[in-house]
Write a structure and sequence with these properties.
The chain has a single domain (8-334), classed as Rossmann fold, CATH 3.40.50. The longest helix has 23 residues, at 143-165. It has helices at 10-14, 43-54, 66-83, 103-115, 143-165, 200-221, 245-249, 251-264, 268-271, 273-280, 282-286, 318-335; strands at 34-38, 58-63, 93-97, 122-125, 169-174, 227-232, 301-303, 307-308. Helix content is 42%, strand content 11%. Bound molecules: NADP nicotinamide-adenine-dinucleotide phosphate. NADP nicotinamide-adenine-dinucleotide phosphate is lined by residues 39, 41-45, 63-65, 68, 98-101, 126-130, 147, 174, 176, 233-234, 236-237, 239-241.
């Protein structure tokens, strides 16, 4: 496991003393915008959905359980009514079945959305698992890598033409400072399914490290488009994220981790603000980057609340980004039943 260099980065510590850079009242009117939020039934995804729908966005809640999603929808409507008096009366929420554990089902979910004929302005890849014990996904791939990274890759690429057609559009990858606590070297593609490669937290870090590489590669490929791709760390947030920790670390250690987290953790509503900034702030499209010939803020990593942080230096290697992209394309082609149309993936630049 690598030393988390963000701890030595003054920009990280400054965020504790800087006023929050985004808030719910800064979210612009989103009427006419269509957004997909994965894992929208719980935790941060639920709070992101509240934020988007309260400003008029039509939110597609991409979840694996329809019953959990239906329950969350009712709660979201009640919460918006109670907390956002200016919100539209007809809060637009819809369920889309998405199981990230199975790449064929992920591809089918993207196709189901496309068949609806809606535009797509915002895609927030939020769903994820953390610290699960050694397990393989339905496709026989280490579970955290499969769910947090590979499935996100397939879902995003399956929706890319629609995001292009609907631009200006945004893609947000909910990441974590934990990407720095990956296995040694960040990622070793020959050892993805090697059980001795890292413990559960390092494998979580590896999945988020791969997601960061994806964000960088995609940004390069979309340089001529008005599709703004960024990653966001929500903070340490009081959610059910640690639900798998007992399997991996035992109950005692898990209880200590839970209690520690509770004393410092944000509420999901606060944790949602940095992803919401990436998804909705006009600044993302308007702000000119220094020394850059492309418009807006792209390919960046933000930590609470809406402060930029340089991700692990290892993620900046274009060679590594392309190596992992090529590996991912090959792996996905092997796992999908129908031939995957890579024409939208574009050649490396
Ligand atoms: N909480 C934190 O402190 C923290 C810190 C850094 C980053 N993050 C990131 O924030 C994101 C959201 O986490 P959270 O804290 O809100 O966790 P959470 O409360 O556990 O919610 C996770 C969501 O992902 C969904 N999900 C899990 N596996 C799935 C699958 N195979 N297919 C479809 N959906 C699946 C869950 O659905 P079910 O309800 O059906 O399980 C749930 O909706 C994750 O990407 C996480 O890595 C969280």
């Amino acid at each position: 496991m690598s030393f988390p260099t963000y701890l030595g980065n003054s920009a990280f510590w400054k965020t504790f003393f800087t006023p929050d850079r985004y808030s719910y009242d800064k979210i612009p009117d989103l009427s006419g915008k269509v957004a997909i939020v994965t894992g929208a039934n719980a935790g941060i995804g639920y709070a992101i959905t509240v934020g988007l729908a309260s400003r008029g966005a039509h939110v597609i809640m991409a979840c694996r359980s329809e019953s959990k999603c239906t329950k969350a929808m009712a709660e979201i409507r009640d919460e918006i009514k109670a907390k956002f008096p200016d919100a539209p009366k007809d809060v637009q929420l819809e369920f889309l079945e998405l199981d990230l554990n199975d790449l064929n089902k992920v591809k089918a979910a993207a196709e189901t959305f496309l068949s609806r004929g809606l535009p797509l302005h915002i895609l927030i890849n939020n769903a994820g698992i953390m610290g699960t014990p050694w397990r393989l996904s339905a496709d026989g791939i280490e579970e955290q890598f499969a769910v947090n990274y590979l499935a996100t890759f397939v879902f995003t690429m399956g929706l890319l033409d629609k995001l292009k057609e609907s631009q200006p559009s945004r893609i947000v990858l909910v990441n974590s400072v934990g990407h720095e606590m990956s296995v040694s070297g960040g990622i070793n593609i020959d050892r993805i399914n090697d059980e001795s490669e890292g413990h559960p937290s390092a494998r979580y870090g590896r999945s988020k490290f791969a997601s960061m590489l994806f964000m960088k590669s995609l940004t390069r490929r979309l340089a001529s488009e008005q599709i703004y791709v960024n990653s966001a760390h929500p903070g340490i947030v009081d959610t059910e994220m640690c639900r798998h920790s007992a399997d991996a670390y035992g109950c005692f250690l898990t209880q200590i981790m839970r209690l520690t987290a509770k004393t410092v953790a944000y509420t999901p509503a606060k944790g949602a603000l940095t992803p919401l900034y990436c998804a909705t702030s006009p600044e993302i499209e308007e702000k000119a980057e220094k020394d850059s010939d492309v418009s807006g803020i792209r390919g960046k990593f933000f930590i609470p609340i809406a402060n930029e942080l340089r991700p692990s230096k290892l993620t900046e290697s274009v060679e590594l980004q392309e190596k992992v992209w090529a590996y991912t394309e090959k792996l996905i082609s092997e796992k999908l039943n129908k031939k995957y149309d890579f024409s939208t993936l574009m050649a490396a630049v």
